[in-house]
Write a sequence for this structure.
């Protein structure tokens, strides 16, 4: 193939997924197009680029770098995560974000490291009840979107969750409550949305679930669930009519991991849609991420 033809083909593939550098499109998985996603409940290693909005939120110490929480790219310079990730440590220069990674210890060309310009914790975050467990991290420089790095789509409150299909969670958290170490390879698993009334009932989370939470997992336990280190990471659901993924939840809390009647509890991104856009400076009238998705 001659060089000109390659350049033309590259140009065409760029327009198909939007302009990569500006992160125009959202919720797409260019590396996974046409590939079956795991339907199994148990977690498994994700393929490179499988969840391109997934980031590792890390802290840099003199003794090394530690993965603290997951997060999701919602714009070229914004990561959505959980407020409780920063409760004991708001020292901004110690934090960094890894985008485009699958294996945390592999230094690959698609991996982009950014430092933190600003941490924006929800003003009404309550560290006892875990109400309003949401935070935005502003990066020092925007990420470059491409096959391994994409932003997730933020649904506005009008998206009916019943119109979404398969939901997935990804993260570098431990694969069980007893596991001593976290996996280095990103894990993925499918979950089911669980009605809040059921999730909050006696024998379940007994009133601990707030109106701004979403529950997801397996009622009988045993299936995929978030665990230590998954906090802040994405719960995404596929649009029933397109291949796009909506960022429906931010991993917040649970009781143990994968226990019966104790599904993972997530902060609903729909409930905080306005807060998120306002903090990113995108709250001008008519700007909804859903309509521009
Ligand atoms: C955590 O520590 C964590 N299964 C998140 C969610 C759950 C447990 C632990 C719920 O990041």
């Amino acid at each position: 193939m001659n060089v000109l033809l390659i350049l033309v083909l590259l140009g065409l593939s760029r327009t198909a997924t939007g302009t990569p550098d500006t992160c125009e499109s959202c919720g797409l998985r260019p590396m996974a197009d046409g590939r079956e996603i795991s339907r199994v409940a148990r977690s498994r290693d994700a393929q490179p680029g499988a969840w391109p909005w997934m980031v590792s939120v890390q802290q840099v110490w003199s003794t090394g770098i530690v993965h603290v929480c997951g997060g999701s790219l919602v714009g070229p310079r914004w990561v959505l995560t959980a407020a409780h990730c920063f409760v004991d440590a708001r020292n901004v220069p110690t934090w960094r974000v890894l985008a485009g990674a699958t294996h945390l210890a592999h230094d690959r060309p698609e991996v982009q490291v950014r430092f933190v310009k600003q941490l924006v914790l929800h003003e009404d975050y309550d560290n006892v009840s875990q109400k309003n467990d949401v935070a935005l991290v502003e990066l020092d420089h925007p990420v470059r979107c491409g096959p391994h790095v994409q932003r997730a789509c933020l649904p506005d409150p009008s998206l009916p969750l019943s119109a979404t299909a398969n939901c997935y969670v990804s993260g570098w958290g431990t694969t069980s409550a007893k596991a001593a170490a976290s996996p280095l390879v990103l894990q993925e698993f499918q979950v089911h949305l669980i009605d809040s009334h059921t999730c909050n009932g006696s024998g379940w989370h007994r009133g601990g679930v707030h109106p701004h939470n979403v529950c997801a997992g397996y009622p009988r336990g045993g299936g995929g669930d978030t665990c230590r280190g998954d906090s802040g990471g994405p719960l995404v659901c596929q649009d029933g009519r397109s291949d796009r993924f909506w960022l429906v939840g931010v991993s917040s809390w649970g009781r143990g991991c994968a226990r019966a009647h104790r599904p993972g509890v997530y902060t609903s991104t729909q409930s905080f849609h306005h807060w998120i856009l306002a903090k990113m400076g995108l709250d001008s009238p008519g700007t909804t991420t859903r309509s521009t998705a």
Q: What stands out?
A: The chain has a mean pLDDT of 89. Helices lie at 3-16, 196-199, 273-279, 289-292. Residues 173, 225-231, 251, 253-254, 257, 264 surround 4-(aminomethyl)benzoic acid (CB under 6 Å). The first helix runs from residue 3 to 16.
